[in-house]
Amino acid sequence: MIFFITLGDSNIKIQHKKFQQMSNYHIKHLEEYFQIHRKSVRNPEGFWEEVAEEHFIWRKRWDKVLSWDFKKPEVKWFEGAKLNITENCIDRHLRIRGDKTAILFEPNDPSEEAEHISYQQLYERVNQFANVLKDQGINKGDRVCIYLPMIPELAISTLACARIGAIHSVVFAGFSATALATRINDSDCKMVIASDGSYRGSKTIDLKGIVDDALEECPGVETVLVAKRINSDIKMKEGRDKWLQPLLEEALTECEPEIMDAEDPLFILYTSGSTGMPKGMVHTTAGYMVYTAYTFKNVFQYRENDVYWCTADIGWITGHSYIVYGPLANGATTVMFEGVPNYPDWGRFWEVVAKHKVTQFYTAPTAIRALAKENLECVEKHDLSSLKVLGSVGEPINEEAWHWYNDNVGKKKSPIVDTWWQTETGGIMISPIPYLTPTKPTYATFPLPGIQLSLMDENGKEIKDNQVDGRLCIKFPWPSMARTIWGNHKRYKDTYFSTYENQYFTGDGALRDEVGYYRITGRVDDVIIVSGHNLGTAPIEDAINEHQAVAESAIVGFPHDIKGNALYGYVILKESGESRNHDNLRKEINQIITEHIGPIAKLDKIQFTSGLPKTRSGKIMRRILRKIACSETDNLGDTSTLLNPEVVQEIMDNVL
Ligand code: WT7
Questions:
Q1: Which of 16, 134, 9 has the alpha carbon at shortest distance from 467?
Q2: Are 551 and 572 contacting, i.e. CB atoms less than 8 angstroms apart?
Q3: Ligand 1 pocket check for 84: Cβ under 6 Å
Q4: How many Å lie between the centroid of ligand 1 and the Cα of residue 395?
């Protein structure tokens, strides 16, 4: 692995006066960053080849580092190479780190003992699981859906799929039966791996019941493997459902890794889009491995005896890249936490940090805001002196939350890495390098080496100046970019490569300051980030419109103290619905959303209205609805193109 701050000596001068108050130590390292970034731009192939040559096990070397065409779009990294990612994440470490803890499992209930899974044990358990998958008829290229809570089996089954070349599709275990079924069917999964249930704080959740409901709609699923977690009494469907434990016990602890091509798919992970169906982003093997390993090492400055903890769920990309693959590729100790921040009390995160002497802590702004609302004693009574780096991801971090995190958790000694990236990018794209890049609240700062950003204006031209904002694009491929949307390459092209020529469009707006730091200003499309969850407006509207009393609906986001954004729904009722009790209707609408998507997509406010502002072409003008929901009605902007301007006043008069 290249640890890039130690590379090269530099004579580049940092001109900007902002940097001149920095110590020589910092300036020297920042110069190195610029030098390495420039090198990666001048010769990207050479740069990534050098990273890939270090430390990984390749069964065969690549013939070509990169071929790409953003028009098609088609991107291939390390073509011709052969490898297995689990050999790199596990086998490679056995000789020197066999007894080192790979996964440190911290259960929901603090009185239950934490489990230290060493690299040797992980090797055996992944191989056993891989053998079970093979015995159950799973072959290379088959899709396996994993619907599990944050228990070791989640990481182990993911790696077991990768061991045999099966494509995993992890679905976050907070999604509803309908959402699960849609995802299973979209990628034709043959198998589902689930558990009897899950713990969530003081509650238990009947996961197997949700799976059973989902599978009513999924004729392609042949087998369900069920892990025992809560020991609940569940129904097992004869011939389809099998308890995992007895199968594992009989399985051998050796399983030869399937040798994969660099561009073979490793996994599918669904993310919301601005239209109905979720997008199954496809990530491939070699590039994803190289990039997540490289960025993990550098962004978190991981050193051999560190204990790294990312609080995300493996059901999201953050967990794939920075709980499982990135850390394990570095031989790190990675904490897997089953619980929630407020159980048994709001001090739980800090208790875990102190207990395991966590050195790097990575969480989301929504969690920070919730924690900051609680009594400071919850933080202060725990010893957080082990912490060296704090991370933030998922949405813009507001200034207040940034300072609270910096002051009370980091005690102004641990730099905050505000990391910007996406499910589609596979790994972190923009982030400070701790102890190197001076941090600035709300700024993700510089692109990582290898990443070439651009800001585009509304006419599709690249903006070269600083102190401007624009639409954030990426103009050159990077190894961990998603290669396609499962089963729908056209949608991949339309969504990411058609807005601007020869650019990957992120869907985010960004501002570049006077020294070149980036600040992400938020989504510029119909995706709303609620508590760090990416929600498309269309699927929620589709769900609401299923209600028999609803004629039409539109969703917008409005600012919320803890969630960042909350959802505001404008709903037009059918005649039959108008006489109904509105509070009951609101409950029913949220119930439908919970069934179709999950509780994360529930609306905070629902306003019934006789119409929605529309353009002459019939498009809902969300901009106006957003302003009304955010109480920014002083200047609604141009309403002259509206078909029905009179409805705006009605909506304003009745705003909630
Ligand atoms: C969207 C991607 C990749 C991690 C989890 C989210 C927003 C993510 C930041 C940040 C401002 C951020 C963007 C992005 N986002 N990180 N540090 N600052 N915004 O993955 O669900 O694919 O969502 O999350 O809007 O496009 P995701």
A1: 16
A2: yes
A3: no
A4: 5
Whether residue 9 is predicted with pLDDT greater than 70 in this model: the reply is: no
What percentage of the chain carries pLDDT values higher than 70? 95
CA of 312 to the centre of ligand 1 (A): 13
Annotated domain spans of the chain = 52-87+283-478+498-522, 527-653
Q: How far is the CA of 520 from the centre of ligand 1 (A)?
A: 9
Residue 17 has pLDDT above 70, yes or no: no
Nearest to 174 by CA among 605, 594, 603, 604: 594
**What average pLDDT does the chain have?**
93
Q: Does residue 226 contact residue 235 with C-beta atoms inside 8 Å?
A: no
Summarised one tens digit per residue, pLDDT across range 567-607 is: 999 999 988 778 889 999 999 999 999 999 999 999 999 99
Rounded mean pLDDT, 226-254: 98
Cβ distance 643 to 616 under 8 Å? Answer: yes
Angle at 373 between CA 372 and CA 377, to 5 degrees: 70
Kindly report the protein residue whose alpha carbon is nearest to atom 5 of ligand 1. 394
Q: Where do we find the tokens 């651009």? A: 454
Give residue 14's pLDDT: 54
Mapped onto helix, strand or coil, the DSSP state of residue 168 is: strand
Give the pLDDT score at 2.
Answer: 45
**What is the rounded CA–CA span in Å between residue 334 and residue 318?**
13
Beta carbon of 508 within 6 Å of any ligand 1 atom: yes
Give mean pLDDT, residues 477-502: 97
Distance separating alpha carbons of residues 362 and 343, to the nearest angstrom = 19
Whether ligand 1 lies within 6 angstroms of the CB of 271 is answered as yes
| Residue of 285, 488, 311 lying closest to 394 (CA atoms) | 311
pLDDT in tens, 111-164: 999 999 999 999 999 999 999 999 999 999 999 999 999 999 999 999 999 999
Q: Which atom of ligand 1 is nearest to the CA of 533?
A: 21
Neighbours of 502 (CB within 10 A): 13
Query: What is the CA(129)–ligand 1 centre distance, in A?
Result: 32
Assign domain 52-87+283-478+498-522 to a CATH class. alpha beta
Q: Which atom of ligand 1 is closest in space to residue 428's alpha carbon?
A: 3
pLDDT at 269 exceeding the cut of 70: yes
Please state, in angstroms and rounded to a whole number, the distance separating the CA atoms of residues 469 and 471. Answer: 7
Distances (CA, A) of 326 to 25, 292, 297, 300: 29, 5, 8, 11
Pocket test of ligand 1: the residue of 529, 530, 533, 600 to mutate, having most ligand atoms within 8 Å of its CB, is 529
C-alpha 260 – ligand 1 centre gap (Å): 30
Q: Say whether pLDDT at 5 is over 50.
A: no
The verdict on the CB of residue 393 being under 6 Å from ligand 1 is: yes
Contact between residue 329 and residue 88 where contact means Cβ atoms under 8 Å apart: yes
Of all residues in the chain, the percent with pLDDT exceeding 90 is 81
What is the topology classification, in CATH, of domain 527-653? GMP Synthetase; Chain A, domain 3 (3.30.300)
By the 10 Å C-beta count (0-12 exposed, 13-18 middle, 19+ buried), 458 is classed as exposed
User: To which residue do tokens 């919730």 refer?
Assistant: 370
Expressed in angstroms and rounded, the spacing between residue 394 Cα and the centre of ligand 1 is 4
Give the position, in ligand 1's atom list, of the atom nearest the Cα of 527: 25
* For ligand 1, atom 18: residue with the closest CA: 396
pLDDT score of 541 more than 60: yes
Please tell me if the CB atom of residue 130 comes closer than 6 angstroms to any atom of ligand 1. no
Q: Region 438-452: what's the mean pLDDT?
A: 95
Can you read off the two tokens belonging to residue 299?
A: 């962004």
What pLDDT shows up at residue 645?
Answer: 83
